Amino acid sequence: MMNTKTVCNDVCDSRQLRRKAELALAAEVKNLLGRDEAEGLCWKGTQVDLMEALYTVFTTGCITDDEGYGVGFGHLVDDVCRLLHTRRPRNPYCIARRGQVRKGIYRRTYMEEYERKYYKLGMPAPFSIAIGGGADG
Question: What pTM value is reported for the model?
Fold first, then answer.
């Protein structure tokens, strides 16, 4: 029988790892926002993955404007879609939610896949791998 304290520690460790992965993703998006539209970057993943990733970053509160206020989700989507030459969905919240609820054998949520690549495969920047064009690709 598993000890309750052990279960609690595992849950706490899991949450800490998730938070660390979310902050790493936010750092990647922040780096992307510093890039120039003229670089010709494009998103190679699905729109659902992109919206789920951006919503996760939005919820961290790490992306701020010049005055230090958190950037709204819509503005974040606008900026990233412009930089990645990707069509902005009409309702990015709905697309992000669709990504967060997918589970099962065939498809993990974006954050589950991000964590797998970040921790198990040791990729330092899993989000950036789905960006093509420019000098990178």
Answer: 0.85
